[in-house]
Design brief:
The chain has one domain. Helix content is about 30%, strand content about 15%. It has 11 helices and 9 strands. It is globular. The two termini are about 20 Å apart. The relative contact order is 0.12.
Length: about 325
């Protein structure tokens, strides 16, 4: 923003009072609330706002940002939407990026929880949703949590894809999306044991769960959220809320975030043998690499490279 990069279309930083300077200065990282939609890729702004409203999804920091996306340029939610939202109605594009990582996937199915049709800026008609964002599914019943609201204070999976494999089995694909996150494993950050006991412990089915019991590391994020995501999709499979045979879990995280990637791989190591084979960690640029050469996404890839990839690679 300080360099007036066209990426942010002239947006100004949120003003903060700096004590040692004695005056208000614009933030170099947070776009002011009046222009926070400029944090989103231009081609998805109206559609993303419509999608969140139609599906009653809470934006990160919504109470502070008045029902608009955050202006924080390092937000992982914004990072995720900027990478994937433009693909949401394109069945072939979603298949291309998923199939490159999971070759057994042969078909992408419409979302089982989104409104059947959602508006997209670059499509003339309402279109099916092939990617769900901030996925929840009867969390109160399945995980004994306090709410089911997507994006709120419950187990909410950043990205969810519903698919079929080459054996015609239905596959759940939960995707956790990280950007600059790093986690401190101190007592103050530890989840209360009573919460785990009340909600999650009895949900681990030793006959089918990828979790080998509740590990000590699961009391801290990011293992805590990855374990809860595992339990949510396992409960969906067990209760057959919609047709589902198994799941494959993905963490998307830039290669430069070595701390988060280390946490993701250590969670993988804690899983059962089958769970480890069905758990993947991938860089966002690598995830979208199958779209290279697809003219429909030239502008998007150029934006992502300039904003997120090009400065470090």
């Amino acid at each position: 923003m300080r360099s007036k990069s066209p990426i942010f279309e002239g947006a100004e930083g949120e003003l903060y009072y700096i004590e040692n300077v004695g005056r208000w200065l614009p933030s170099p990282k947070i776009i002011n609330r009046r222009e926070s939609t400029k944090n989103l890729y231009k081609g998805i702004r109206h559609a993303a706002l419509s999608y969140f409203q139609l599906n009653d999804i809470e934006w990160w920091g919504q109470s502070e940002n008045l029902y608009f996306p955050t202006g924080h340029t390092l937000s992982s939610q914004i990072h995720c939407l900027n990478h994937l939202f433009a693909l949401r109605a394109d069945k072939d594009a979603v298949l291309a990026i998923i199939q490159a990582l999971l070759p057994n996937i042969c078909e992408i199915l419409p979302s089982p929880i989104d409104e059947k049709f959602c508006y997209m800026d670059n499509y003339p008609y309402k279109t099916p949703s092939y990617i769900s964002f901030e996925f929840t599914c009867e969390n109160r019943t399945l995980l004994n949590e306090r709410c089911n609201k997507r994006g709120a204070n419950c187990t909410s999976i950043d990205v969810f894809v519903y698919a079929k494999d080459s054996d015609n089995k239905h596959v759940l694909i939960p995707i956790e999306w990280k950007y600059t996150e790093a986690y401190v494993k101190e007592d103050d950050n530890k989840v209360k044991e009573s919460v785990v006991e009340e909600r999650y412990l009895d949900k681990i089915d030793p006959t089918m769960s990828h979790l080998k019991g509740w590990q000590d590391s699961y009391y801290w994020d990011p293992h805590y959220e990855l374990a809860r995501q595992s339990l949510l999709v396992e409960q969906i499979i067990q209760k057959q809320l919609f047709e589902a045979d198994y799941y494959q879990h993905i963490v998307v995280c830039p290669v430069e975030n070595t701390e988060m990637r280390k946490d993701a791989f250590s969670f993988k190591d804690s899983l059962s043998e089958i769970g480890q084979k069905q758990f993947y960690v991938i860089d966002p640029e690598e995830l979208l690499s199958p779209l290279s050469g697809n003219m429909a996404y030239d502008e998007l890839l150029k934006y992502l490279k300039e904003r997120y990839w090009g400065s470090v690679k």
